[in-house]
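An example makes the point: we let one protein speak, the chain in one-letter code, the fold tokenised, and here it is:
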Amino acid sequence: MKTPFLVVGLCLSAVLLQACSSTSNTVRTPTPLAQGVDGRDLTLEWQVSVNKLSEADGRSLTIADDAQHLFVASSSGLVTALWKQNKSRYTDQVIWQTKYEAAILAGPVLADGKLLIGSAKGDLLALSPETGQVVWQTQLNSEVVSTPVVATGRVFVRTNDGRVIALNLQSGEVVWVADHQMPNLFIRGAAPVLVNDDKVYVGRESGFVEALSVTTGEAIWDARIVTPSGRTDLERMVDIQSGLVLHNDRLFVLSYNGRMAAVNPKNGNISWAKDISGYRDFVVLDNVIYLVDETDVLRALDPATGTEFWNQAALQYRLLGDVLIDSNFSVSRPSILLSDGLGYLHWIDPKDGHITVRFKHANHLKDGEKILRIHQDKKHYYVLDSDGGVTAYQDQNAPTTRPGGVKSSVNHE
């Protein structure tokens, strides 16, 4: 019987696979921050503590929002609705809270007047964003481990037993199920599917990427991105944990212990592949791929050939998060935004990779906390950290208009 928690015990003590290596037992020391980088001028507006989060169970937790509200969930089972506007007191900042017996592992995602969350008991729930009451609840028999994706009137999720499941958004009724055999050992959690036109694209724990019919779930094609190698199950781990990105008729895939590849989304043929190991989400901005590899080196690649333009190793081994695009940073052009496991935010020039400014996020004790999620809204940055803190920062100097002509692709949001 396979147990995903084995991966947690072996590799995830600090952060997802950060200290795990198939070739070395060397402890990785975070690179000290370089001197001479200016601090970003962000103002703390409010900070609310919801519940301490389990990093092993936090991979698919998100921050959802509408014009006035934020929604967050915790692996403890707590779902919280908050006002975006500063209400001064905790009791006024929180609109409602709902506690479930099971841990929340995925979501929340706000779509069509419903707040979608997935639980460790295998439940997918649609809540009322106004009250937190359950609109519908569907038992899927295995942990929901990917952020729900809404498209074509359906909700698409992945479960810990390897299935992709499509459900009716209005009723929660299961429309179809696509099974997949899981390897003996795999990373806890799963990247969300990518839905485009008539296909659902899935990056698998076995090193495959596949296209399914959005209507029936039947397989259209599959392509092996990386072949497992090594004598042990740990050495043979080739999970595709990074979200897939579709850009200019190419599907970009990044695997752990494997490769970065460009795939033809129509037939699964591989255009190019480059030996890079990674598991964080990446982006394509102005026709350049920006990704963080397994050692926390930021790399910029040519989407047409995979050729590397530059790399930035100043943040190596600092437990970096997903690569984000910050369109609020400058009137002239956006910036690359990275968080690290020591509580810092870093803004990076996409042209050459140099760090322009940084900011230290802190909890009520003024200690840096690992940042799990960052959500942007005009002049605001909303941060969810591993201590269960939700913090709103305001940038008084943010541009009033967003940069024009920016072409970017991300896996999901």
